[in-house]
Amino acid sequence: MANNDLEARHLETLDRDLRRFSRLEVATAQVGRPFVGSGIAFVFIVIAGITAALLFGQASNTMIVVIAAMFGAYMALNIGANDVANNMAPAVGANTLTMGGAIAIAAIFESAGALIAGGDVVSTIAKGIINTESMGTATVFIWAMMAALLSAALWINLATWVGAPVSTTHSVVGGVMGAGIAAAGFGAVSWVKMSQIAASWVISPLLGGIIAAGFLWFIKARIIYQDDKIAAARKWVPVLVGIMAGAFASYLALKGLKHLFKINLQTALVIGLVSGVLIWMVTIPVIRRQAEGLENRNKSLKILFGIPLIISAALLSFAHGANDVANAVGPLAAIVQASAVGDFTHAVSIPPWVMIIGAFGISFGLFLFGPKLIRVVGSQITKLNPMRAYCVALSAAITVIVASWLGLPVSSTHIAVGAVFGVGFFREWDAERRLIKARGAVPERPVLAPEERRRRKLVRRSHFLTIIAAWVITVPAAALLSGLLFLGIQAIAG
């Protein structure tokens, strides 16, 4: 008996020690995880520099190109960590995609968009933000582009760390503007162009929010609030999928494939109309089969929106890779061209190895650091389900088309996040409306106290204020940082 007690105490002590070791291993893994990601990112940046050294050739300014390639790789990693979250967050927040599945789809389609339709030419650098001729010499221009690239990457890195989705395009624009001012004074900046970009801070999220809220209202009115939800879904879901197909066909024709084919807005809309009608016809029997045997409840509707939501997320990623890879490699390509031939006033050709750095950098950044922003946009602003997430994705495509038609510069980040806010605020309004209606039907229903009403808000105000503040200060913050970096680089080099 004594031996049994001794053995039991021995096993208990052993189990206690093993639990301590298990907790220690878990804690060590949690602490070490950020270092693993940072380590892999650092290796990628080094590989980008080595690639530039091997492919640029032996020249007196090879080291400049190597450093610029490392800055470009760092920028691409940050775009993947911050910007790509906007495409995948709605599907993840609605539990239609797992985090791993979203990252895999985004990595494939972002890379495909960048490499297939990422653009062979970037217009005179910074999209007319500064007058490149005012830079004077190629050396000054190179320093300015390096400062712009590094400042934009640093700012996006900071925004990702605090959990704020910001526009990478605006970060690059602010960086170029700040370096241009530091190099050639305020007269070097096109203030008309900057005023258009400032206007897009309001236009992008407002358009995205209104369109997303409009589609959510339609889904609620025509499907969710109907007595026979499944019959309503059989009728209207194919229409919504057709609208999505048409919108994305126009979106990809207008934005994602503009570097492969010259397509104007009218042609893009015709392509979208034809695609939308065809997909609508194909979807009718598919939705009819999916709807068989489903219960007449809201939960059943989520099944019908799942696959269209996944497809929309993939298409958004493709278009994003085609468009925003230039934010990472545009300034780098300009530095390569200026270093190779001394030309910095004309259109910039992007070498294939530069595009590959941008494409793979975006994918690595998403894989290593993207989950944080995906969670913020997908679940921490407001609760999403497949119907609401579908409205967000559809709004992103339609808003870009509307903005292109109006000739307005918009940010894909602002559109997507604005759409999430639009869905959330519409839910608040709809819930309040239904509460007032119910109270009218039941006069004795108690009125909620102001504190309880605030607690029941469906959009988290803290995230709303943080994100809006980050949007407002992105351009001036990136500009200030870029100007300081330019002066520092010039002092070191000079």
TrEMBL record:
Question: InterPro entries from the xrefs?
Answer: Phos_transporter (IPR001204)
Query: Which positions, given as ranges, span the membrane?
Result: 35-56, 63-81, 140-160, 172-192, 198-219, 239-257, 263-282, 303-322, 350-369, 389-406, 412-429, 464-493
Q: Which GO terms describe its biological process?
A: phosphate ion transmembrane transport
Q: Name a single GO cellular component.
A: membrane
Question: Transmembrane helix among the record's keywords?
Answer: yes
Major localization listed first in the record, in broad terms: membrane
Name the UniProt record assigns to this protein: Phosphate transporter
